[in-house]
Amino acid sequence: DRPRMLLALEFKQYAIRHPRKQKRLAQLHAAMCSRCVETDLNKLIPEFACAGPEQKRAQSAQIGAILDGLALNCMFDAGSLSEEQRLRLLQANLRVALRTD
Question: How high is the pLDDT of residue 87?
Answer without folding.
Answer: 92
